[in-house]
Amino acid sequence: MKPLTITASHVPAGLVLEVAGDLDYTNAQRLRHAAQETALPPGRRLVVDLSELEFCDSSGITALIAVRNHALATGSEMVLVAVPAGTRRLLHMTGLDQVFDMRDDPRSLTGR
């Protein structure tokens, strides 16, 4: 099991949350709190970079939904980038691939 790390950084388009390690029932609440604790002005973008995500269970998926709902409630959009194959498969099986905006390259959204 890899410990979860969440790194927040501001970019011109909005905010990037880099999620690394295992996102599961033991720590999914940390992702929710990370999104809620950062100021995201209306019209900005929240980019959740999953390029270093090792594992994601149903609690992690639920946390991603909560983060998306939080972004929408603030008048912002949320984009998942570099979604690992296993997580992408879970999102597809649940139909959430139709809900989340998923992109492959985080640099195209963050300017980094």
Account of the protein in words:
GO terms for molecular function: anti-sigma factor antagonist activity. It comes from Streptomyces griseomycini. Residues 4-112 form the STAS domain. This is Anti-sigma factor antagonist. Belongs to the anti-sigma-factor antagonist family. The chain has 112 residues and is α/β, with parallel strands linked by helices. The chain has a single domain (5-110), classed as 2-Layer Sandwich (Transcription Regulator spoIIAA). The protein is built from four helices and five strands; from the N terminus they run E-E-H-E-H-E-H-E-H. The protein has helices spanning 28-37, 58-73, 85-93, 107-110, and strands at residues 5-11, 14-23, 45-56, 77-81, 101-103. The chain has a five-stranded mixed beta sheet, covered by helices on one side. Strand 1 (5-11) and strand 2 (14-23) form a beta hairpin. Helix 1 (28-37) packs parallel to helix 2. The protein is globular and about 35 Å long. The protein starts with a strand and ends with a helix.
